[in-house]
Amino acid sequence: MTASIETLIQLRAATAGLILAGGGAVRLGGMDKGRLLVGGQSVLARVSATLRGQCAALALSANGDAGRFADLGMPVLADEVPGLGPLGGLLAGLDWAAAQGFAWLLTAPADTPFLPPDLLLRLGHAAREGGAPAAIAASGARTHGVVGLWAVAQAPRLRALLLEAGQRKVGAWAQACGAATATWPDEPVDLFFNINTPAEHEVAVHLAARRQPLSGAVVVARSEDGAPLLAAFAAEARARGARLGGLLQHGSKAGGDRPEDVTLVAQDTGEMFPILQRLGQGRGCMVDEQAVCGASAALRRARDGGLAPVLVNKFGPLEAEGLGLADDMLALMADGAALLTTVTESRLAAWLRFCGGACTLLAPEPAALEQWWQNWCAPLTEGEAAAGQATQSSW
Q1: pTM: predicted TM-score of the whole model, two decimal places
Q2: Which of 65, 98, 330, 395 has its CA 20 to 30 A from that of 157?
Q3: How much is the pLDDT for 258?
Q4: How far is CA 393 from CA 201, 204, 249, 386, 388, in A?
């Protein structure tokens, strides 16, 4: 497999995942930190579930008795040379991924209970945009060098750094291989919060009760139309009783439809807004900005009426320039509405700037959209609700 990232959509098939669980956890009495419970699940189970959805295979990096992880059902990789720290685990993971035929390795530590489900898409985007063989995560002003995406072809370089140069610092390795950086917001919860002490474990339990799902953006290839996927999702959600709002496009210029047949359809009322205008004989057509502004009333109704989910067919060229539906989309996101849209890979950088990174990128698959919606609809468990009440009174 090539290490170039031609399309983010195909990246998962070329990527293996590695959970780094080699730390000694001295401040927690030497226990496996990943076995701590947060939100009714072990941290390791949470990390595993998040990474499995983004990788084609998954392994665990840990030293000592591998049998203690037998319940996880994944390979357990020991360091080639003891005492090398997280980079020793990374090297073992790169060698394993290469032997399995993967071009990329996605890594995360076993003590991070809130990892985002779009790690691979954002890190892959950052690596491709920077022409880099790796990308690491950041939140706020802090980088997280062990949360990264690495080209497996970098293994010889890492081995030389570790065994010949004696370098052990993760930050130095990220700099040496020219890793790009992908940044997530650190509010309301830092998704890369990690547990090292009993006090941090208590904080994590409280943070789990403050979960706040983010707007979803389905990433589609440059030439793909995400409308059929959103339409199928809308039909399924409506059949389950959801009160949908927003706008979906029917017809397309690229699909050969007449301009008058390309419309935005309000999901709550069925009202149709033709959005293309003819420019005259032989001059083609263009988007009618006035019609788009008229259609935006559907988004304001969704916001005022608490409709959910709220669909916006796509983040298009108008929105990328701050026009069209941009203001209404931002208002919905500021209100914490369940906004779902599509964005092409070519406009992904513009979208991330537009929303300030406060979104969840989704693969263009029905299961990804379904999981996003389930996260919105999932009620708090009794334990989470109790922790949430404690949070409101003490934070």
Answers
A1: 0.90
A2: 65
A3: 85
A4: 18, 16, 45, 11, 9
